[in-house]
Hints:
The protein is α/β, with parallel strands linked by helices. The chain is built from 17 helices and 19 strands. It has helices spanning 7-19, 24-43, 66-80, 96-104, 117-125, 148-157, 202-206, 231-237, 264-275, 287-296, 337-346, 390-400, 408-419, 455-468, 473-491, 501-506, 508-516, and strands at 2-5, 57-62, 84-89, 109-111, 129-133, 161-164, 186-190, 193-194, 208-212, 226-228, 252-256, 280-285, 301-304, 325-328, 364-366, 384-386, 422-425, 430-433, 440-443. The longest helix has 20 residues, at 24-43.
Amino acid sequence: MISGHTAAAVRAAETPLLAAGEPLMLRAARALADHVASRLHRASPHSADEGGPGAPRVLVLAGAGANGGDGLHAAALLRADGIHADAIATAGRLHEEGAAALREEGGTILPLADTSAAMLEEHLTRTTLVLDAMLGIGGRPEVPAELVPLLALVRASGLPVIAVDLPSFVDATTGQAAPEALHATETVTFGAVKAALLLPGGAERAGTLHLVDLGLAPHLPATPAVLRLEEADARSLLPQPDRDATKYTRGVVALAAGSEQYPGAAVLAVSGASRTGAGMVRCLAPQTVLDLVLRERPEVVGHRVERALGGPDAVDLAAVGRTDALVVGPGLATEDPRAVAGVNCLRAGDGAGDGAGEGTIARGVIDAGALGTLTPEHRFGADVVLTPHRGEAERLARRLGVDPDLPGLLLAPALAEATGATVLLKGAITLIAPGAGGPLRTQDDATPQLATAGTGDVLTGVLGTLLATGLPGPDAAALAAILHGRAGRLASHDGLHPLVALEVATHLPAAIGSILAGAQP
């Protein structure tokens, strides 16, 4: 599991080591230089010596502070190892020791103020790789006007960028990023993963993360600001049947989904649930929807629920038989009796310590149309997961008295606090706020090809099955985001091809298999 920490927590963890005389900058620079050298060697193992044709060349964009010092010291070490490395000073001053080290190794440092656009373009044409060492954890998400042309030239060059500690002009704690901030191919971060590297804004600019251990772990908070599951975590959480398993022990999930207007939502949601390994999937829907569902998924147990039966009191979703988790909302209008009845089934009972009152189901998902039924009076347990996208989250926030304009990393926890439920806020970076409190979770496993109608219904079904197996709400939500993202990548050939939602469900078994086998697609 990846733990992300705030800038303040990282600074506090560094303080005792620096006071003890630990050479943190030199250790960080050595690790950075080794990483860069290894990358260059893999890319061109037979390149000529420094100065020869085809020899790799590294250009450091060096700022005034310690982050610039990391980059300059790394450039000096690269030169000592026979790799050509120079720097551009992006500020009026430089880290003196780092600058002296690079110059002693024969490197040049060009002041940006004295370098024309033509000179910069010429340097970039001879460059193999750029190190972004302009700003570290003290950076703000604002690019000075004099640096905008430089960043534009670097972007236009198409050169790979390695961010030093974190991409410049990104707030290390919130992830807020300046629009002009460079998108790194990789980030080599020192001592601890900064929260920004796991949050929207920063995560999109960080690329692949590499953590350099500097001995900070004993001094970091026991509870990080942000958590992210890795593949090994997903592997340990994935439920697997044993020899004595039955369809009931594997989890029974019921889905109140689909309508005359959106019948396909039920097909997609039950397919997501079935292909994730539920022991039994029930679908509560009108007959016309059930007919469509059963043509695609004959293993589903259908329960006919017609709107003509009356109001929500006439829809007894808790009486359909054994159910370990209830999914309500995909393809439903807010006024659909199943939406109100389903939310009432999941509602926490008055005074119930486990969050479930008589006649309720303690685990489940509230999605799509059912989200529109929630009011400030509704309370749920942490094993009930709300799954809004940004627009739905804003509408829900207005009804609950929460500021709808909050950034995602604050909006999801605010909704979780207001409802007691775990909140999975859908987006390019999935944000998960546990209903019982604790660190925000994020997952970044998806492909933009998942931005198409119906894929959210598949995710809802996946999540329902994982909850039915007994996984806690936050774990189930994070694992569902991983499986959904992996299946989307498989269905789209790692993002190269368009996909449709049902293909995501079809690829769920392969996604699960690849995780269990420890294989990346």
